[in-house]
Amino acid sequence: MSLEKFLNKAVSSWMCAEGPDSDIILSSRIRLARNLRNYKFPTLFSNDDAREIIGNIQGYLQQGVFKEYGPMELLLVDDLKSLQKRVLVEKHLISPRLTEHESHGAVILSDNEDISIMINEEDHIRIQCLYPGLQIKEALEKANAIDDMLEAKVDFAFDEDLGYLTSCPTNVGTGLRASVMLHLPALILTRQMNRIIPAINQLGLVVRGIYGEGSEALGNIFQISNQITLGKSEADIVGDLTSVVQQIIAQERSAREALVKTSNIQLEDKVFRSLGILANSRIIETKEATECLSDVRLGIDTGFIKHLSKNILNELMILTQPGFLQQYAGGPLRPAERDIKRAAFIRERLKLEERD
Protein backbone atom coordinates (compact mmCIF):
# COMPACT_ATOMS: atom_id res chain seq x y z
CA MET A 1 0.00 0.00 0.00
CA SER A 2 0.98 3.62 -0.27
CA LEU A 3 -0.27 7.02 0.80
CA GLU A 4 -1.43 7.68 -2.76
CA LYS A 5 -3.89 4.79 -2.51
CA PHE A 6 -5.73 6.51 0.33
CA LEU A 7 -5.64 9.89 -1.41
CA ASN A 8 -6.54 9.12 -5.01
CA LYS A 9 -9.80 7.21 -4.59
CA ALA A 10 -12.79 9.24 -3.47
CA VAL A 11 -14.96 6.35 -2.31
CA SER A 12 -13.53 3.83 0.16
CA SER A 13 -14.02 0.19 -0.83
CA TRP A 14 -16.44 -0.45 2.03
CA MET A 15 -18.71 2.37 0.76
CA CYS A 16 -19.35 0.48 -2.49
CA ALA A 17 -21.03 -2.36 -0.61
CA GLU A 18 -24.78 -2.45 -0.10
CA GLY A 19 -25.91 -2.15 3.51
CA PRO A 20 -29.27 -2.40 5.31
CA ASP A 21 -31.48 0.66 4.69
CA SER A 22 -28.78 2.16 2.48
CA ASP A 23 -31.36 4.24 0.62
CA ILE A 24 -31.32 6.47 3.72
CA ILE A 25 -28.38 5.37 5.90
CA LEU A 26 -25.09 6.11 4.16
CA SER A 27 -22.86 4.70 6.90
CA SER A 28 -22.57 3.51 10.49
CA ARG A 29 -19.56 4.34 12.63
CA ILE A 30 -18.19 3.23 15.98
CA ARG A 31 -15.37 5.09 17.71
CA LEU A 32 -13.72 3.92 20.94
CA ALA A 33 -11.51 6.32 22.94
CA ARG A 34 -8.70 4.78 24.97
CA ASN A 35 -5.66 6.05 26.90
CA LEU A 36 -2.56 4.30 28.21
CA ARG A 37 -2.25 4.13 31.99
CA ASN A 38 1.37 5.21 32.37
CA TYR A 39 1.27 8.28 30.14
CA LYS A 40 -0.22 11.75 30.52
CA PHE A 41 -3.18 12.55 28.27
CA PRO A 42 -2.27 14.08 24.88
CA THR A 43 -3.18 17.55 26.14
CA LEU A 44 -0.25 17.35 28.59
CA PHE A 45 2.22 14.75 27.38
CA SER A 46 5.63 15.46 25.86
CA ASN A 47 6.70 14.84 22.27
CA ASP A 48 8.95 12.06 23.55
CA ASP A 49 5.93 10.36 25.14
CA ALA A 50 3.99 10.77 21.92
CA ARG A 51 6.71 9.25 19.77
CA GLU A 52 7.08 6.37 22.23
CA ILE A 53 3.36 5.61 22.03
CA ILE A 54 3.46 5.65 18.23
CA GLY A 55 6.50 3.37 18.26
CA ASN A 56 4.77 0.89 20.55
CA ILE A 57 1.60 0.74 18.45
CA GLN A 58 3.64 0.50 15.25
CA GLY A 59 5.50 -2.42 16.80
CA TYR A 60 2.24 -4.27 17.45
CA LEU A 61 1.22 -3.62 13.84
CA GLN A 62 4.50 -5.09 12.59
CA GLN A 63 4.05 -8.10 14.87
CA GLY A 64 0.82 -8.87 13.05
CA VAL A 65 -1.59 -8.10 15.91
CA PHE A 66 -4.21 -6.91 13.40
CA LYS A 67 -3.38 -9.38 10.60
CA GLU A 68 -6.85 -10.92 10.47
CA TYR A 69 -8.14 -7.61 9.08
CA GLY A 70 -5.77 -7.68 6.12
CA PRO A 71 -3.05 -5.20 5.15
CA MET A 72 -2.85 -2.10 7.32
CA GLU A 73 -0.53 0.88 7.10
CA LEU A 74 0.63 3.49 9.60
CA LEU A 75 0.89 7.10 8.41
CA LEU A 76 2.67 9.77 10.44
CA VAL A 77 0.67 12.97 10.38
CA ASP A 78 3.81 15.08 10.52
CA ASP A 79 4.94 13.52 7.22
CA LEU A 80 1.74 14.57 5.45
CA LYS A 81 1.33 17.77 3.50
CA SER A 82 -1.52 20.11 4.40
CA LEU A 83 -3.54 19.08 1.34
CA GLN A 84 -3.03 15.38 2.05
CA LYS A 85 -4.34 15.83 5.59
CA ARG A 86 -7.39 17.64 4.25
CA VAL A 87 -8.20 14.80 1.85
CA LEU A 88 -8.04 12.22 4.65
CA VAL A 89 -10.39 14.39 6.74
CA GLU A 90 -12.81 14.69 3.81
CA LYS A 91 -12.84 10.90 3.53
CA HIS A 92 -13.61 10.64 7.29
CA LEU A 93 -10.41 8.63 7.80
CA ILE A 94 -8.93 11.08 10.31
CA SER A 95 -10.41 13.87 12.41
CA PRO A 96 -9.66 17.57 11.92
CA ARG A 97 -8.20 17.59 15.44
CA LEU A 98 -5.52 15.04 14.50
CA THR A 99 -4.26 17.37 11.77
CA GLU A 100 -3.72 20.16 14.30
CA HIS A 101 -0.93 18.36 16.14
CA GLU A 102 2.70 18.48 15.09
CA SER A 103 5.28 15.71 15.43
CA HIS A 104 3.12 13.36 17.47
CA GLY A 105 0.07 12.18 15.53
CA ALA A 106 -0.43 9.04 13.45
CA VAL A 107 -3.13 6.85 11.96
CA ILE A 108 -3.33 3.17 11.05
CA LEU A 109 -5.61 2.51 8.06
CA SER A 110 -6.91 -0.79 6.73
CA ASP A 111 -6.68 -1.56 3.03
CA ASN A 112 -10.39 -0.99 2.38
CA GLU A 113 -10.48 1.96 4.82
CA ASP A 114 -13.17 0.53 7.09
CA ILE A 115 -10.75 0.62 10.05
CA SER A 116 -8.96 3.76 11.22
CA ILE A 117 -6.91 3.79 14.42
CA MET A 118 -5.89 7.34 15.29
CA ILE A 119 -2.93 7.73 17.64
CA ASN A 120 -2.39 10.77 19.85
CA GLU A 121 -5.48 12.68 18.85
CA GLU A 122 -7.55 13.93 21.83
CA ASP A 123 -6.83 10.53 23.39
CA HIS A 124 -3.86 8.20 22.93
CA ILE A 125 -5.90 5.76 20.82
CA ARG A 126 -9.15 6.18 18.95
CA ILE A 127 -10.44 3.08 17.17
CA GLN A 128 -12.89 3.82 14.35
CA CYS A 129 -14.84 1.21 12.37
CA LEU A 130 -17.13 2.07 9.45
CA TYR A 131 -19.86 0.03 7.76
CA PRO A 132 -22.31 0.78 4.93
CA GLY A 133 -25.98 1.18 5.82
CA LEU A 134 -27.40 0.58 9.28
CA GLN A 135 -24.84 -1.78 10.83
CA ILE A 136 -23.96 -0.17 14.15
CA LYS A 137 -23.87 -3.48 16.03
CA GLU A 138 -21.55 -5.00 13.46
CA ALA A 139 -19.24 -1.99 13.65
CA LEU A 140 -19.21 -2.27 17.46
CA GLU A 141 -18.27 -5.95 17.31
CA LYS A 142 -15.28 -5.20 15.08
CA ALA A 143 -14.18 -2.21 17.18
CA ASN A 144 -14.41 -4.29 20.36
CA ALA A 145 -12.34 -7.06 18.76
CA ILE A 146 -9.59 -4.56 17.85
CA ASP A 147 -9.86 -3.07 21.34
CA ASP A 148 -9.33 -6.53 22.86
CA MET A 149 -6.26 -7.09 20.67
CA LEU A 150 -4.72 -3.87 21.94
CA GLU A 151 -5.74 -4.42 25.56
CA ALA A 152 -3.87 -7.72 25.49
CA LYS A 153 -0.71 -5.71 24.75
CA VAL A 154 -1.14 -2.48 26.73
CA ASP A 155 -2.57 -1.31 30.05
CA PHE A 156 -5.45 1.10 29.46
CA ALA A 157 -6.36 3.89 31.90
CA PHE A 158 -9.42 2.39 33.61
CA ASP A 159 -11.30 3.03 36.84
CA GLU A 160 -13.53 0.37 38.38
CA ASP A 161 -16.27 2.93 39.13
CA LEU A 162 -15.95 5.32 36.17
CA GLY A 163 -14.79 3.02 33.40
CA TYR A 164 -12.31 4.10 30.71
CA LEU A 165 -10.68 7.46 31.45
CA THR A 166 -10.50 10.00 28.65
CA SER A 167 -9.26 13.53 28.00
CA CYS A 168 -12.81 14.86 27.65
CA PRO A 169 -15.21 14.09 30.54
CA THR A 170 -18.05 13.43 28.08
CA ASN A 171 -16.25 10.31 26.85
CA VAL A 172 -15.52 8.81 30.28
CA GLY A 173 -17.16 5.43 30.83
CA THR A 174 -17.40 3.28 27.73
CA GLY A 175 -15.41 5.77 25.64
CA LEU A 176 -17.94 4.96 22.90
CA ARG A 177 -19.27 7.22 20.18
CA ALA A 178 -21.77 5.49 17.92
CA SER A 179 -23.06 7.43 14.93
CA VAL A 180 -24.96 7.02 11.70
CA MET A 181 -24.94 9.23 8.63
CA LEU A 182 -28.39 9.75 7.13
CA HIS A 183 -29.66 11.33 3.91
CA LEU A 184 -32.95 13.04 4.85
CA PRO A 185 -34.10 15.21 1.91
CA ALA A 186 -37.82 14.45 2.28
CA LEU A 187 -37.91 15.46 5.95
CA ILE A 188 -36.26 18.74 4.94
CA LEU A 189 -38.62 19.34 2.01
CA THR A 190 -41.65 18.65 4.21
CA ARG A 191 -40.20 20.86 6.97
CA GLN A 192 -40.26 18.17 9.63
CA MET A 193 -36.57 18.25 10.60
CA ASN A 194 -36.92 21.32 12.81
CA ARG A 195 -39.38 19.38 14.94
CA ILE A 196 -37.40 16.13 14.93
CA ILE A 197 -34.00 17.51 15.98
CA PRO A 198 -35.12 18.83 19.42
CA ALA A 199 -36.89 15.52 20.09
CA ILE A 200 -33.69 13.62 19.27
CA ASN A 201 -31.66 15.86 21.60
CA GLN A 202 -34.04 15.17 24.47
CA LEU A 203 -33.24 11.46 24.11
CA GLY A 204 -29.54 12.02 24.83
CA LEU A 205 -28.53 12.01 21.18
CA VAL A 206 -27.04 14.81 19.10
CA VAL A 207 -27.55 15.80 15.46
CA ARG A 208 -24.58 17.22 13.56
CA GLY A 209 -23.47 17.96 10.01
CA ILE A 210 -21.60 15.74 7.58
CA TYR A 211 -18.18 16.27 9.20
CA GLY A 212 -19.33 16.10 12.81
CA GLU A 213 -19.22 18.76 15.50
CA GLY A 214 -19.49 22.29 14.18
CA SER A 215 -20.06 21.26 10.58
CA GLU A 216 -22.96 22.07 8.29
CA ALA A 217 -25.54 19.51 7.13
CA LEU A 218 -24.48 19.68 3.49
CA GLY A 219 -26.72 17.96 0.98
CA ASN A 220 -29.35 17.08 3.61
CA ILE A 221 -26.87 14.69 5.22
CA PHE A 222 -26.88 14.48 9.02
CA GLN A 223 -24.93 12.58 11.64
CA ILE A 224 -26.79 11.31 14.70
CA SER A 225 -24.73 10.04 17.62
CA ASN A 226 -24.88 9.37 21.36
CA GLN A 227 -23.94 12.05 23.89
CA ILE A 228 -23.82 9.88 27.02
CA THR A 229 -21.00 7.38 27.62
CA LEU A 230 -21.06 7.13 31.41
CA GLY A 231 -23.57 4.95 33.24
CA LYS A 232 -24.77 3.08 30.14
CA SER A 233 -23.45 -0.10 28.60
CA GLU A 234 -22.22 -0.24 25.03
CA ALA A 235 -25.17 -2.45 24.13
CA ASP A 236 -27.63 0.07 25.59
CA ILE A 237 -26.00 2.99 23.77
CA VAL A 238 -26.10 1.19 20.42
CA GLY A 239 -29.59 -0.14 21.06
CA ASP A 240 -31.02 3.28 21.91
CA LEU A 241 -29.38 4.87 18.85
CA THR A 242 -30.61 2.09 16.57
CA SER A 243 -34.17 2.45 17.87
CA VAL A 244 -34.23 6.21 17.22
CA VAL A 245 -32.63 5.84 13.78
CA GLN A 246 -35.18 3.22 12.76
CA GLN A 247 -37.96 5.66 13.64
CA ILE A 248 -36.31 8.37 11.54
CA ILE A 249 -35.95 5.94 8.63
CA ALA A 250 -39.68 5.25 8.82
CA GLN A 251 -40.46 8.98 8.90
CA GLU A 252 -38.18 9.73 5.94
CA ARG A 253 -39.73 6.92 3.90
CA SER A 254 -43.22 8.16 4.77
CA ALA A 255 -42.26 11.70 3.75
CA ARG A 256 -40.87 10.44 0.45
CA GLU A 257 -44.04 8.49 -0.28
CA ALA A 258 -46.14 11.56 0.52
CA LEU A 259 -44.06 13.74 -1.82
CA VAL A 260 -44.36 11.24 -4.66
CA LYS A 261 -48.10 10.94 -4.08
CA THR A 262 -49.03 14.60 -3.60
CA SER A 263 -46.28 16.48 -5.43
CA ASN A 264 -45.12 14.01 -8.04
CA ILE A 265 -44.57 16.38 -10.95
CA GLN A 266 -43.03 19.07 -8.74
CA LEU A 267 -40.62 16.54 -7.21
CA GLU A 268 -39.72 15.11 -10.61
CA ASP A 269 -39.10 18.63 -11.91
CA LYS A 270 -36.86 19.43 -8.93
CA VAL A 271 -34.87 16.25 -9.42
CA PHE A 272 -34.28 16.72 -13.13
CA ARG A 273 -33.53 20.44 -12.82
CA SER A 274 -30.78 19.53 -10.36
CA LEU A 275 -29.50 16.81 -12.68
CA GLY A 276 -29.46 19.35 -15.51
CA ILE A 277 -27.44 21.80 -13.42
CA LEU A 278 -24.89 19.13 -12.51
CA ALA A 279 -24.63 17.84 -16.08
CA ASN A 280 -24.20 21.25 -17.69
CA SER A 281 -22.73 23.76 -15.24
CA ARG A 282 -19.32 25.25 -15.94
CA ILE A 283 -19.04 26.86 -12.49
CA ILE A 284 -20.59 25.49 -9.30
CA GLU A 285 -19.95 26.16 -5.60
CA THR A 286 -19.83 23.46 -2.94
CA LYS A 287 -23.23 24.24 -1.41
CA GLU A 288 -25.11 24.26 -4.72
CA ALA A 289 -23.36 21.08 -5.83
CA THR A 290 -24.26 19.20 -2.64
CA GLU A 291 -27.88 20.38 -2.80
CA CYS A 292 -28.19 19.20 -6.40
CA LEU A 293 -26.50 15.90 -5.59
CA SER A 294 -29.00 15.38 -2.77
CA ASP A 295 -31.89 15.96 -5.19
CA VAL A 296 -30.40 13.53 -7.70
CA ARG A 297 -29.91 10.84 -5.05
CA LEU A 298 -33.55 11.33 -4.00
CA GLY A 299 -34.51 10.93 -7.66
CA ILE A 300 -32.58 7.66 -7.81
CA ASP A 301 -34.17 6.34 -4.63
CA THR A 302 -37.71 7.29 -5.73
CA GLY A 303 -37.26 5.78 -9.19
CA PHE A 304 -37.31 8.97 -11.25
CA ILE A 305 -33.69 8.45 -12.31
CA LYS A 306 -32.80 4.94 -13.42
CA HIS A 307 -29.45 5.31 -15.20
CA LEU A 308 -27.32 6.43 -12.25
CA SER A 309 -26.08 4.38 -9.28
CA LYS A 310 -26.67 5.20 -5.62
CA ASN A 311 -22.94 5.45 -5.02
CA ILE A 312 -22.74 8.62 -7.07
CA LEU A 313 -23.84 10.72 -4.06
CA ASN A 314 -21.17 9.20 -1.79
CA GLU A 315 -18.49 9.61 -4.43
CA LEU A 316 -19.24 13.12 -5.63
CA MET A 317 -19.89 14.44 -2.12
CA ILE A 318 -16.24 13.68 -1.38
CA LEU A 319 -14.76 14.24 -4.83
CA THR A 320 -16.10 17.79 -4.98
CA GLN A 321 -14.72 18.87 -1.60
CA PRO A 322 -11.88 21.46 -1.71
CA GLY A 323 -9.12 19.05 -0.67
CA PHE A 324 -9.95 16.41 -3.25
CA LEU A 325 -10.35 18.95 -6.02
CA GLN A 326 -6.87 20.27 -5.35
CA GLN A 327 -5.46 16.76 -4.99
CA TYR A 328 -6.71 15.88 -8.47
CA ALA A 329 -5.56 19.22 -9.85
CA GLY A 330 -2.08 18.56 -8.52
CA GLY A 331 -1.82 21.65 -6.34
CA PRO A 332 -3.55 24.60 -4.65
CA LEU A 333 -6.53 26.25 -6.36
CA ARG A 334 -8.19 29.56 -5.63
CA PRO A 335 -11.92 29.34 -4.71
CA ALA A 336 -13.02 30.45 -8.19
CA GLU A 337 -10.74 27.86 -9.79
CA ARG A 338 -12.16 25.16 -7.51
CA ASP A 339 -15.69 26.03 -8.62
CA ILE A 340 -14.68 25.56 -12.26
CA LYS A 341 -12.85 22.31 -11.54
CA ARG A 342 -15.78 21.03 -9.45
CA ALA A 343 -18.23 21.56 -12.31
CA ALA A 344 -15.89 19.81 -14.75
CA PHE A 345 -15.44 16.79 -12.48
CA ILE A 346 -19.17 16.40 -12.01
CA ARG A 347 -19.86 16.63 -15.76
CA GLU A 348 -17.17 14.06 -16.50
CA ARG A 349 -18.39 11.69 -13.77
CA LEU A 350 -21.99 11.84 -15.00
CA LYS A 351 -20.89 11.15 -18.58
CA LEU A 352 -18.86 8.16 -17.40
CA GLU A 353 -21.89 6.84 -15.48
CA GLU A 354 -24.08 7.14 -18.56
CA ARG A 355 -21.57 5.23 -20.72
CA ASP A 356 -21.46 2.42 -18.17
Structure characterization notes:
By secondary structure, this protein is of the alpha+beta class. The chain has two domains: 1-21 and 29-173, Glutamine synthetase/guanido kinase, catalytic domain (Creatine Kinase, Chain A, domain 2, 2-Layer Sandwich); 263-354. The protein is 47% helix and 15% strand. It has 13 helices and ten strands. It has helices at residues 3-8, 47-62, 82-90, 96-100, 136-151, 185-189, 193-202, 234-262, 264-280, 286-301, 311-319, 322-329, 335-355, and strands spanning 25-34, 72-76, 106-110, 115-119, 125-132, 158-159, 163-164, 176-183, 205-208, 221-226. The protein has an eight-stranded antiparallel β-sheet, with helices on one face. It has a two-stranded antiparallel sheet with strand order 6-7. Strand 6 and strand 7 form a beta hairpin. Helix 9 packs across helix 10 (286-301). The two termini are 28 Å apart. The mean pLDDT is 91.
User: Measured on Cα atoms, how large is the radius of gyration?
Assistant: 21 Å
Give the SSE string: HEHEHHEEEHEEEHHEEHHHHHH
Poorly predicted parts: none
Shape: globular
Structural class: alpha+beta
The helix count comes to: 13
Total count of strands: 10
Strand content bin: 15-25%
CATH class of the largest domain: Alpha Beta
Helical content (DSSP H or I, runs of 4+)? 40-55%
CATH superfamily of the largest domain: Glutamine synthetase/guanido kinase, catalytic domain
* Average residue pLDDT: 91
* Structural domain tally: 2
Q: Largest sheet, described in full?
A: 8 strands, antiparallel
